[in-house]
Structures are given as structure tokens and as C-alpha cells.
Amino acid sequence: MKISDDSSPISPSEEDVSKPLLRSAATNSSIDVMLDEEAMPPQLLQETEPWKCRLREEQELQNIINSKPSLILITGSSGSGKTSLALRFSNRFAYFCRGKFDQMCFATYMPFGAALSDLTEQLLASLDADELSKLKETLPKAVDGEIGLLMTAIPPLSSVLPKQDVPNVSSYQGIELLIRLRHVVTRFLEFVCHERKETVLLFLDDLQWAEPGCLAMLSAILRKQINGLQVIAACRSEEVSVDSALSILLRELEDEGLCIKDLYLRELDIEEVCDFVSHSSGLSKSQCQQFCMMIYQQTEGNLFYTLELFRTLKSMGAVSKKDGTLHCDLEILNKSRNTLSRGAVNDVITLKLQKLSLETQRALALASFMGTRFDSRLVSLALDQDDQYFLSSTEINSLPRIVRQVCHTAYYEFYHDKVQHACSTLLTEMENSQLCLGAARTLVDKLDGTMGVEENAAIISRLLRQSLHLVNSSAEKVKFAEIFFLAGKCFLKSTRFNAAAYKFHDARELLPRRHWRDHYNLSLSIFTASAEVEHVVGHCDNAERLAREVIENARLFLDSVVAHTVTISSYSSQLLFEESIQLGLQLLRKLSIRIPSRAGKLQIAIEVLKTKSKLTKFRTADILSLPVMTCRESQAAMEILAHTLTSAFLSKSPYQVPLSMAMIRLTLEYGMNAESVSAFAMFSVIMAMMSNIELAQQYGRLTLDIMRKYDTKAWVSRVYALVYGLTFIETMSVRKVIEPLMEGYRAGLVSGDTTSSTGCLYFATLFRFLGSESIDELIKFGIDYRKVFNAFRHDNVLILFNIVLQAMENLLGRTADPVDLTGSFLNQKETEKVAEQQGNRAAQSVLCICSIIVAFTMNDYARAERIFDFCQSIPYVHSKFSRCCVLFFGGASKLILAHSSLTGRWRRIRQAKKCIKLVRKRAEMVPEDHNHQVHFLEALLYAVEAKKDRALAAFDEAAVCCEQGDSLLHRALIAEHKSYFLRGCGRDDEAIDSLILSRRTYEKWGAKAKVVQLAAFPFLLKSNSHTGSVSIADGSSDAQERS
């Protein structure tokens, strides 16, 4: 949408055509801005005539709150009274908490941390002894045991919860930390609203400055739709573009069905300014007209500016009554103008500040560069004052509408960002630079050798950014480069990857020319971290360039391991799997890890035998008792193996076998580390693919035991994706592995392992589709889950997920060609071409599975046969359950074609018998999933062999078995093809009944394309051809359908 920046006066009677913030829907609410008594300094108002003119807006906002929307956006320009309006509702909820975003001090969690700390203090103050005791018992369970992380996020809780409950959270880094925080925050809010049965108003101020991490936290809270929680956000609509992260999030939330209501506050017009001045001065509007015009010209109707200017003019004695009218002497104001500010509004704020002592002005100027909220102790320390200077300063604490103390702590915040800006312009540009540099030097010197340097590195680096041009000493530049490096690490912990990249860039710029020689360790740390974060933010070229510099200058090979793994991962991100694998193999050779140069069948067999031979010497208890790996070379090898194995697994390269075998052998020899668990899980998968089911199950269970022993929640998603998605599916019914896979998906979102999480989600969706659940419901969930893939940019898994969704869309009848997988999610020809070029065997296999199901269901048996033949020509990379589906539809297609054509008849029958044999073998292990398939294939075979009685009996047996397995697709297929067979036998009435059953079952499954196909033409009974076109007219009763 177009956001208006028109500042011309608007009459209250005119229609406000402003649209909701950054969205194209109709305006939920458009109101006229009136003045708020709370927003006006009390000393400006006549106590006998308080001005109450905002009842309409309050009532409008109350009406919106009563409708219980997910989010209320109060929008308008800076100073339009958004915050004051929201604050009027603070006493209408059981708890009110507020967080404010800061344009000069971005922090992913800070606004939410401030709000939740405020909420917690109110909660604790309202509890009696019994309620407090109950909270201590129930809260840990409510946040899924993450009480330590919750206490870190909400410090007030540490005063009531036992300290021994706090786990070590230092291992939570990057995206993992943010995802855990989202989970904990939403669970805590649910606890307050549901368990405590209280209402909470969460107010987020200045939402336009929220970075993507903050928006992700907000979206997690809103999507939870917590009953009893109302979220209100104030946002400057003119400062947010339509394609910003905030705009996109709002549109996505509305698309998902969340209700978002807008309240737009426009600027005052001249009439409203006159009302304000008239009420304040006691004069009529006509007597104030000229004065009000001057005020309006200076402020353009902005509420905050109008209040500030009028108050300052009165305090300066520039306002007087002459001849019954109000006059203003602007000369008094002009004499005090600050040449650095623009217009009377900024001047009046600056004028107030200039009346303060120089010491106080310097303190406020320095604080303005630290952020909207700042630590007064840090300001005092930087200015070489006592740490109580700010707290005890009468001058600072008596400042009206400049700064205010936060909850009786050492923290202060500026009353308004315009005040903060005015403070930043109190001194000249050179004086500001000198002030910031001196403060940074003082802080570095006084905090040197303490944790304070690292904790405040982000603030110190912000001060240095204002003054780096004054730094000439090489030694000092190196010291400051370390500060920027520490600041970057702080940003990494809060998932601010882009901010971290900028800090690391500044650190590199400060290093001297020969820094690799003179400051090797610092250079290695900065460049290695830079390469990692550039890869995380998707700048692969920068990541590879920085990694290359590390590799070229590293004194030891082990110093360059991280840079090498960055390069391997960067290649994989660009789908350059072969380059990624070859680089990994080359590095492993340097570490004397023997991986065959050619991964043929013989080499793979040898690697497996070597590993199995080693494993025979270890019992399960021995493996569980292995020590922790401490050898640095082995740890480096495991890191390289893990990254290379990821590329091999995604591309389904045969190297995944020797790579995983090498990881297991290293674990057995040197001990357990983080990568070991995935190695054992991968070993179980390989054994399953080699049909060594017993060993596969044994090591699948061992992997789960290792995970439970070390209680590592971060491994749950990865292990479940491999063990349940590829190992246990060999012996378990597909319906039994879906829930563990969804558990793995949810665990990955909590732990931050988003790659494995999306893998679990893909497997679960594929199995639900192959298990013939209702595709109507499946595609609805799939579209929602697809947003998860897009959010985490896991393109390798997303392409597989899109193939499954496209197959469902085809069957739902939403595509032009029902059998070609081209539609909203996929273009089949393009996907096939890309998969072939990249050697993406996984994509090729999923295409085969989904295409053959769609083709067979839509009676395109020739196409299904071609897909089956192609599938046999490529290395198969999925589970035996998925492979069995291909064998079933391929074998059935060949038998139907053999029945209708003499060409290639015996060859097709022979191939179909092989399929039946393999499906029967699979059915012996999981009869509920495959018995009906065996009987169906046998029925088709008997039909080809003209054994009518046996064929009919096999159809009936298939139907009975299908009822036990509850597969809608197979139930419909059996009824459909039984109908064709019965017609060939001349049993027309039974054929029609069977076809009606088939059509109803397809309808229940959701395959509307198939239902339309069956109902498209009159019921034609053609010859005895098994592939004859059979369809029926739509009807609401059996009689109508039969007719």
C-alpha cells in the first residue's frame, strides 16, 4: 500500500482514507486524533478545567479489544499520541507489561525481556505464600523443563526459584537460542494466562524498529493465540515500507487467519490546535487564532511537538495577552536557537537541555549514543564519575519529560526519541566524537581483565563507531578490533547475524597491514568467525573468500579446520555437492583418515565389513560407556566427516557409507562426541538399506539409548529423522512412525536443529500421503508447514516437500493436466532437469513415487510403467516402504497393460511377478501395510491368466485386508478394478455397485480429479478390455448413480 506522508491539515469531518499498516485490506478503524490529558504536562492545564477530549478514541480502542483480535496496531507519525492512548488501558487488565524497541540499540530479546520482567514482578507481588509455593512446583513443567533459560531471560524469577534448577545455557547459540527463547516465552505467557487464569496486556512500543528476530518472537506469540493475552503494538506507519519484514509478517499472519485490527492516529488540524490553546489559556478560539496559526506552522499539527512548543514558550515568557488576544514573541526563542537543530520544535527541547550544567549535558549526550534505554552506571563510569552519580543527581532526576528511571533500577530511558536526538546534538560533531572516544577508552581501561568488557562490548563498539576517525595509533586500533570482535560474538548469541557480520567487518578494517604476522591469534579468530557468519547469512562468496584467507595464512592445519568446513557447507548450500564431497575427502586424507577414492560396490562392502568387525568387539553397554573424545585431530576429523556426510546424504552419494563408517570407527577408537550419535543413526539406516534388518534395528535402538543417556535434546530431531524415517519404517507400520517423526519436528524447532526438524516433517508428510490419509486435510497442513521450510531456507528438503504437495494438488483436481506434476508448487520438467544436472537422487526418487501414484490413479498405465522403468534405472535412496509403493504400482501397471496388449505381454508378466515377490517379502514384516497390495497384484495376475474365480477371490481378500489397514486409496483402487473385472465377466449390476463404492471412497480420500473422471461420461461398458473407460453420472443416491 501507499503510506501517506501528507501533513496538510485535515478536518475532523473529512474521511480519513489511510489504510491499515502496510496491508491492502480495508481500514478496520479510522479515527480523529484528539488530545490526551496524560500526554500533556499537568502544569500547562488549568486544574479547574481538565481537557477530556479523547473519549471517542478510548471507546473505539475498547470496542476493538472487546472483539479479541490477535493483534491491535496503533499507527501514526512520531509524537501522535500512540503510546499515551495504549497506556490508558494499563489498569483494565490484571497485568500490564510494556517493551520498547530502540532504533539505536537493537537487541533481539531486550523488549520482550523488559516486558516479561515487568509482568513477573507484578505476578510475584500478587501471590500469597501458598500460591508462590505452587508456582515453584508447576512452572518448570509448564516451560518443558527449560526453567534455567527462563530465569536467564526473566531475572526476577531467580529471586524465588532455587538456583540449583538453573542449567548451563552456554551451549545455546545462534538460531538454537532464539528458537528456545520463543518456545519458553510462549509457554510462560500460556502459564500466566491459563494456569493463573489472568488477563495480560502486552504493549510493544515502536514496532517499526523491530528486527527480524524480534518479529519472529512476536509471530510465535501471536500464532499461539493465547486466551487472555491481548497484544497491542504502536508503530510509525510512515517509517515502514510495504516490502519490509514487518509488512510481510503482517500479511502472512492475516493469510493464516489471525485477526489484526488497526487504529490510525492522524495529526491535529488547525481547529484542534485552537481547541487545545483555548482550553489551556482560558481564551476564546477567536482570540487565539493568530497564535494557533503560528504554533501549527511550526509543528504541522504534531501532538508531541505542539505540547512541547507551547509549554516552552509559556515558560520563557514568550506568551502574553494583549488587547484580549494571545501573542507570542518569537524573538525570545530565536535568540536561543541551536544552529545544529531544525525548526522551533527541536530548538525548544534543546533549549531546556542547554539550561543544564555542562556535566549533565555531556552525560545525556553520551547516554544518547548508548540507546533509548541505558545503564546509568556505565555512563557514570565512562565519565569517570561515581557509579551512583546518575541515581543521586538532583538535576537529572528532576528533568521533566527528558529521562525517566526504569522500575527503580540503575536503568534510565529517554522520554521520547526526539528528546534522545536532541541530546545527541547538544555538542558539535567534533565534541561528540571526542566524548565518545574518551568514554570508550575509559571503559576499556576500567573494565580490562573483567567480564565487563565482553558484556558491554556492543555499547563500547557503538561509541567507537562515532569516533574511529580520531584513532591513529596502530596498537589502539588492534585493541579496538578486539572490542568489535567481542561485540560481534555478543550479536551472534542473540542471533543478530547481520549485525555480527558488520561488527566483524569493522574488526577486520582495524587490523594493521601485517596482522597475520603480528597478531595471528586475533586475526584467526576474527576471520574465522567472519567466514562462519557470512555463510549463515547466505553470502557464500564472502564466506569462501574469508575462509580462503584463513586457509592461506593458518600456521597449522588444525587452525583452518573451521574455515574448511565453512567452504564445504557453502558448496553444499549452492547445491555443489560433488565439489563439497571432494573437498572433504581431500581434507580427510591430510588427517590420515582413509576413505576410498572410489565408492563402488566393492569398496562400500569392504568399509561395512571393517566397521562391523570392529563393532563385534563392543557390547551395547561398552558403546554407551565410551569416554568423551579429547583428541584434537580426531575432533577435527569428525567435524569434516560430519559436514561432508551432510553433502553426501543430501545428494545421495555412495560416499555416505564410507564416511559414516569412518565416523563410527573414530568413535570406537577415540571416544564419543556430538557427531557420534548421528553416525550410529546413519549406520542403522545403511544396514536397513542393505536388508540387514536385525542389525539395523539393533543400532537404531542403540542410537536412542545414547541420546537418552546424554539427555541431549538437540539430537532428538536428527536421530528421529534417520531412525524413524529410514530405519524403523522397515519393520513398523507407517502409521506408527508418523507421531515420532512429528515429535522430532517439534523437538527440532525447540532445539534449533531446523535442518533435521524439516526433514522429520517431510518424512511424516510423505508417509501420511503414502498411507492414504485424507489429502484434503493433508494439503492444508502442508501449505502451513511449507512456511517453515521457507523461513529456514532449507531448499534441499523443500524441493522434496513441494513434490509431495504437488501430487496432492493434482489429485485434488486443481491443475490443468491431472497427471503432470506442474502447478502451484512445482514444474515437473524443470525439476527433473535440475535434479538430473545436480545428481539429486532424492528428488528423482520422490518424483518417481508421487508421479507413479498420480498416473496409476488417473488410469494412465503407460505413463506409470515408464516411471517404474526409470525408477529401476537409478539408485534407490528411500525406505523399503516407499520402494514397495513403487513396486506395487509398477507391477500393477504392467499386469493391466499385459491384459490389454499382446505386445511385450510375457515380459511384462515376468517383471510383474518379480514385483509381487518383493512386495510379498515386505508384507511378511509389515502385513497391515502391504497384505492388501499382494492380494491386489495376485488378482490382476489371475485376470491376465483368465483364472476368473481365483481373481475374484483375490479381489475380495484384498478388500478385507485393506479394511484392516485403513488405506482409502487402496480401498478405492481395489473397488475400481474389481468393477472392471466384473464387467468383463458380464456381472454388470455388481460392477456398478463396486464402481459406486470406488467413487465414494475416492471422494472421501479427497481425490476430486478422480471423482470428476469417473463422473464425466455416461456409464459406458466397453468390450472385455480391462482398461475400458468406465464412469458414472453424479447422483445423491444409489438409485440415481445406478441409473
From TrEMBL:
InterPro entries the record matches: AAA_16, Hybrid_Histidine_Kinase, P-loop_NTPase
Domain of life, source organism: Eukaryota
Q: Using the record's annotation, list all stretches that form the Orc1-like AAA ATPase domain.
A: 51-225
Tell me the segments the record calls region Disordered: 1-21
Q: What is this protein called?
A: Orc1-like AAA ATPase domain-containing protein
